[in-house]
Amino acid sequence: MTLRPVEDHLAAILATVSPTPTVDLALRDALGATLAEPVRSAVDLPGFTNSAMDGYAVRAADCAGASTSSPVRLPVVGDIQAGDTSPRTLEPGACWRIMTGAPMPEGADAVVPVEDSDGGTETVALTAAPDLHRHVRFRGEDVAAGAQVLAAGAVLTPGRLALVAAANVATVRANTPPRVAIISTGDELREPGSELAHGQIVDSNSLMLEALVRASGVEPVRLPRSRDDVDSLTRALTEAAAAADLVLTTGGVSMGAYDTVKEVLSRSGTVEFAKVAMRPGMPQGHGVIGPRATPIITLPGNPLSAMVSFHVFVLPAIAALQGRPVDAANWRAPAVPGRAAVAWPSVPDKVEFTRVTLRRGIATPSGGQGSHMVGALADANAIAIIPADVTQVQEGDVVQCLRLVGTIPANNAAGEVSML
Amino acid sequence: MTLRPVEDHLAAILATVSPTPTVDLALRDALGATLAEPVRSAVDLPGFTNSAMDGYAVRAADCAGASTSSPVRLPVVGDIQAGDTSPRTLEPGACWRIMTGAPMPEGADAVVPVEDSDGGTETVALTAAPDLHRHVRFRGEDVAAGAQVLAAGAVLTPGRLALVAAANVATVRANTPPRVAIISTGDELREPGSELAHGQIVDSNSLMLEALVRASGVEPVRLPRSRDDVDSLTRALTEAAAAADLVLTTGGVSMGAYDTVKEVLSRSGTVEFAKVAMRPGMPQGHGVIGPRATPIITLPGNPLSAMVSFHVFVLPAIAALQGRPVDAANWRAPAVPGRAAVAWPSVPDKVEFTRVTLRRGIATPSGGQGSHMVGALADANAIAIIPADVTQVQEGDVVQCLRLVGTIPANNAAGEVSML
User: Fold this and answer.
1) Is the ipTM of this complex over 0.85?
2) How far, in whole angstroms, is CA B286 from its chain's centroid?
3) Least confident of A282-296, B96-110, B285-299, B369-383
């Protein structure tokens, strides 16, 4: 049987995903959101003409000819500090002491820096003649009211949120934060901390997926674990399709659970199962369920396969829900290069995903590659993508690596970050 | 006056910071937490001896001499699927059909893969003689109950959470998630969307800092904006010191506000103000306040200075609160290299921080470097660190860049990530 290429399967998934409806978000709730519409400034920036220096606000004409040898003396009307909101006026023949950022008084047209003065507070001796408009920042010189400050599609970073706020815009139009539901099935699965009877195991997969969803910036929808029978799973799927914008199933490890997922979803007629040319993660399923045609992705049960599938298929689907541009053909684009620390073999005719630790540009395979050893996932911070036509990675080869979400603490100051 | 080196100022800040008290966190609340104690497995992993292959669970002795030319025929007692929790026994002279991951029946000591059989379900012809223990995964062969699976200091990534869950451990001992309070002062400051009178500006700084704190994985504590007088600010500081593990002030842009911050904090006797050998961000203050000696960092008022100071001083302080190892002398460690797209000058005798966009290993200065242009922060995704002894960056030079937190969507599939 012919295996489906990764990019074709991702394209099929993305065809089922539309951006979530747009909504007005207050700026405090908008970190990481994608703009559905451009943001235009509600005000001029700066909002008022102000001084670029600490010094004296003057009429330039009053200072003509000022020099060290022949200073111009002017009376100082008073101080204008940054944050001063009183309207001030400068009459000819006088000056105001002014701080950086403080509003220029009406009538002033230049600033003499304090360095070009004797620093006087009652009267001041100015030792340089300013050009007209020297050291003045004009209202609107950065941004005019009505001008676009951010384009649709921009992701709202902290710096961009500051810009939107400075533009005096209180809400942005963005895609609704997506909700991702995780359905876990398997009668043998138990919560962590349970007494385990013979053959029972802890459900670590749904916890991992929930953490991956959260680490990718999206709130997971928690649903009770479904039993392995058709009725329970049908109910769980109906609930998930109504509550979420994307549904993930993880089959546990049991054949029964996987069979039930496959049986119920095959019956729907809107979900297809495919073998994808990748290892791990070959058995994939995807489609839509419920009256709103909610996209669903069925993830393989073993932890490494689920981890790989999440990064290759689910992350792009979440990005698409958020209204971000996603190109299935370019699915490797978020990868970063790493140099292989050692040689390792790769399966022919499939894309091999090798879990690695990526540190300072060096990719080292992490733990055994056996799919049952959840422990080996603990140290990996990336998965190396070995193309289908490569059967052997040589030491020193540059390999493309997808960083695992949630493995890089943003505030790590000790250099544990993946570096290149 | 001698300026204080960046590493000395950071060391002085870190000397005021202790890890937060430890607490038991449920795994669902522990993403990104740092382990205060090691995690030991509560169970053997795997938890029961199971099959590594789809095939037949046998007694190896029963299959002696089996080959293609002389198969051994055994009756098949039944099927054991993954997730089967019934106790099963294998009597001599028979076998069970068994799936990968399914519990081995009592008495069986090897698995013959289905490929070495005729696939029978009533009786099976086995065409290979297995070695003892062949294709059997033994209980505890990955991890023995009681063995350490994660060391203290480990940051809980999704993969590590899965490991802890699989080890049947329901809670972890970790540092309490730190609370970071942001105090903004300045009588001229207004909320986004307000009518602005002459000289009033929108408070974009505290929103930016709140987003930076959140993007660094920590919940900010929101406090009402303080007025510019001593009483209001004293009250706000008292409240912040009680409510948070770290207090940040941002002075707005007004001299009055900054003076008030300085006056109140200088009076406390536990906060020092220093000029640090960096640009922007030279005027820094830090110390402790309140009965619990809560650390405080006073950030400069202009947005770029605040952004730089956050990454250089606040992020390491947050990491230290979380119990992560932080070395002030190594403050550049989280930086990644980028190649300068163009030449640019750098101030002598201070570390210069140049905002840049870092894409595919190329660092391009972003917008004007004037500190008042909040717009130019919008495109930057990193700040290049130009050492004090460098006065000119040449095109093609490798510069070390601190990535700005919150600028890399984890689920970006279109390659907007900073690449090297």
Assistant:
1) yes
2) 25
3) B369-383
Please give the pLDDT value at position A83. Answer: 87
What number does CATH give the domain B23-43+148-175?
Answer: 3.90.105.10
The reply to whether A342 touches chain B by the CB within 8 Å rule is no
Q: Distance between CA A243 and CA A229 in Å, rounded?
A: 21
Angstrom distances, CA of residue A70 to CA of A95, A114, A117, A128, B84: 18, 17, 12, 9, 99
Mutate to test the interface with A, among B81, B86, B157, B355 (most CBs of A within 10 A): B157
Q: Is the dihedral of CA A274, A278, A283, A288 positive or negative?
A: negative
Whether A27 and B207 lie within 8 Å, measured CB to CB: yes
- In this structure, whether the domain defined by B50-137 belongs to CATH 2.170.190.11 is answered with yes
Query: Among residues B286, B317, B230, B416, which one has the least CA distance to residue A412?
Result: B317
Is B372 part of the contact surface with chain A (CB cutoff 8 Å)?
yes
Q: Is the pLDDT of residue A369 over 60?
A: no
What is the CATH superfamily name and number for domain B6-20+177-330? MoaB/Mog-like domain (3.40.980.10)
Q: Quick one: A23-44+150-175 is in which CATH superfamily? A: Molybdopterin biosynthesis moea protein, domain 2 (3.90.105.10)
φ and ψ of B255, to 5 deg = -60, -40
Instruction: Return the pLDDT at B371.
Output: 41
Residues 32-61 of B with CB under 8 A from A: 32, 42-43, 45-48, 52
Q: Is the pLDDT of residue B417 over 60?
A: no
Q: In chain B, where are the structural domains located? A: 6-20+177-330, 23-43+148-175, 50-137, 336-403
Q: What is the pTM of this model?
A: 0.89
CATH code of the region A336-403: 2.40.340.10
Contacts of A331 in chain B (CB under 8 A): 413
pLDDT at A374 over 80: no
Instruction: Summarize pLDDT for A255-282 with one digit per residue, the tens.
Output: 667 778 888 998 888 999 999 999 999 9
Tokens of B276: 């640090």
What's the Cα-to-Cα distance from B305 to each of A363, A399, B310, rounded to whole Å?
A: 36, 38, 8
Distance, CA of B17 to CA of B318 (rounded, Å): 9
> A104 — contact with chain B (CB < 8 Å)?
no
Interface test with B, best of A49, A51, A157 (most B CBs within 10 A): A157
List pLDDT tens digits, range B175-212: 999 999 999 888 889 999 999 999 999 999 999 999 99
What is the rounded distance in angstroms from the CA atom of residue A164 to the CA atom of residue A152?
13
Nearest to B85 among A191, A197, A361 (CB): A197
Alpha helices by DSSP H, A177-285: 205-215, 230-243, 255-268
- CA–CA gap between residue A325 and residue A330 (Å, rounded): 11
* Chain A hits for B161, Cβ within 8 Å: 204, 207-208, 211
State which H helix or E strand residue B358 sits in.
Answer: strand B351-359
A100-158 confidence digits (pLDDT tens): 889 999 999 999 999 999 999 999 999 999 999 999 999 999 899 999 999 998 999 99
CATH number assigned to the domain covering A6-20+178-330: 3.40.980.10
Q: Do B157 and A406 touch (CB under 8 A)?
A: yes
Tokens of A115: 């360095």
User: Chain B residues with CB inside 8 Å of A257's CB?
Assistant: 83
Residues of B in contact with A11 (CB under 8 A): none
pLDDT for B77-116, tens place per residue? 999 988 899 999 999 999 999 998 899 999 999 999 999 9
Show which of residues 159-198 on chain A sit within 8 Å of chain B, judged by CB atoms: 159-171, 186-188, 191-194, 196-198
State whether residue B60 is helix, strand or coil. Answer: helix
pLDDT band for B418, please (50, 70, 90 cuts). very low
